[in-house]
Amino acid sequence: MDRQRRSQLAHADHPIAAPLTDESVARLLERAVADEADRALDLGCGGGAWLRRLLVRYPRMRAEGVDIHIAALEQAREGAEEAGVADRLVLHEMDASVFASAHRFDVVLSVGAAHAFGGLLPTLAAARELLAPGGHLLVGDGFWEREPDAAALSALGATWDDYADLATTVDRVTADGWTPVYGHVSTAGEWDDYEWSWTGSLSRWALDHRDEPDALDTYKAAAEHRTGWLHGYRGTLGFVTLVLRRSP
Question: In the chain, what's the furthest Cα-to-Cα distance?
Answer without folding.
Answer: 60
